[in-house]
Amino acid sequence: MKTQKLQILLVEDGSSDVEAVCRAFRPYSENTNISIALNIFEAKAYLAESNPDIVITDLFLPDGSGMELLATEKNDPGYPMIVMSGMGDEEKAVEVMKRGAFDYLVKSKKSLAFIPTIVRMVLREWETLQEKKQAEIEMIKAKEKADRASQAKSEFLARVSHELRTPMNSILGFGQVLNMNKENNLTENQKDNVKYILKAGSHLLTLINDLLDVSQIESGKITMVPENVNIMSLLDDLIILLMPLTNEKNIKITNQLSDDSEGIAWADLGRLKQVLLNLIGNAIKYNQVDGSIVLECEKPSEGRICIKVKDTGEGISKENINDIFQPFHRLEGKSAFVEGTGIGLNIAKGFVESMDGTIKVDSVLGEGSCFTIDLPIGKA
Ligand code: ADP
């Protein structure tokens, strides 16, 4: 099979140097083609028509510097270049290489005889570089594609959940009117059915709101309005709010924050409340009957404050511990029978990170879990 010849452009005005290069390539004449340009003008005219595999150019030409044929930031010529000069000037060599030449050759009988080997080495290096560049371009393209898809998904989620909220609120509103039964004309069966509508409706509304949160976190459009938040009083409010659930399972909650003057975090109150509601809600949901929950607040390091939610539930195995922050991820086993969607911890992570904080969990299977959120401390 006949392979394409290697196309070399030699830009050189010295006839003895042209002769030396051509002589060196003579043993390879079957698969090498050398075109000669005597100056920059001729070289540019040749390059406008043809794509050589490599350019070998003299540095000093009658109408300018061989450097003019080098790649510029805006213009990648698509070939490697070897620059030759009669001067063994190190500074010049460094400059030429910095500007993108692949090699700098000091012209001598010996070096010109060696030029086919240099060309082979340069071409090999050039090919590796091109492959690397191509791989980088493909990686950037793939990332852009994934980003666009993810952005489109987040926008779709945001729009759908937003549109669903309005009719859902009106279903719930009219359900509540029916539930009041002012005219006292509903049968017992109808009253039960209205309660089912309200329960399913409020569950659906929670889901829609969660989806809206997820889409906002994913698209980076979440806005936080941080303020000084008193952790002690926030936790006290939440304990009261969750009392019906703790009473149902006879779970004891203790708030171990003693010095409330220290317990001030710099956070968005509404979002932090939602995060803690999810963590304490889980500590109740996945706890045993007669279990306990301990809430703690510490200052782990200068400028930081952390809140811990410890439970005596079934715990989470080491293999599963990293998965629970993934959206819609629910663990198998007993917890699978507890009502939930697997999205709360994902939202909690997004919210905490948007407040310049971190969230982590330590757990021992069969003994319980401890969720810790770390936040910036309140401002004086
Ligand atoms: P949900 O509770 O709605 O399923 P979450 O995102 O809050 O969603 O939690 C994800 C999963 O992590 C839960 O389904 C449960 O399997 C596990 N999990 C969360 N909190 C605890 C906990 N305190 N103890 C044991 N497992 C937990």
Explain the layout of strands and helices.
Elements: E1 6-11, H1 15-25, E2 32-37, H2 40-49, E3 54-58, E4 60-61, E5 64-65, E6 81-85, H3 90-98, E7 103-106, H4 109-113, H5 115-180, H6 188-218, E8 227-230, H7 231-241, H8 243-248, E9 252-255, E10 264-267, H9 269-285, E11 292-298, E12 304-311, H10 344-354, E13 358-364, E14 368-376
Parallel strand pairs: 1-2, 1-3, 3-6, 6-7, 9-11
Antiparallel strand pairs: 4-5, 8-10, 11-12, 12-14, 13-14
The structure holds adenosine-5'-diphosphate (ADP).
The site of adenosine-5'-diphosphate has 20 residues, from helix 9 and helix 10.
Written description of the protein model:
The chain has ten helices and 14 strands. The strands form four sheets. Strands 2-1-3-6-7 form a five-stranded parallel sheet, with helices on both faces. Helix 5 (115-180) packs antiparallel against helix 6 (188-218) and helix 6 packs across helix 10 (344-354). Strand 13 (358-364) and strand 14 (368-376) form a beta hairpin. The longest helix is centred in the middle third of the chain and has 66 residues, at 115-180. It is 47% helix and 19% strand. The protein is of the alpha/beta class. Bound molecules: adenosine-5'-diphosphate (ADP).
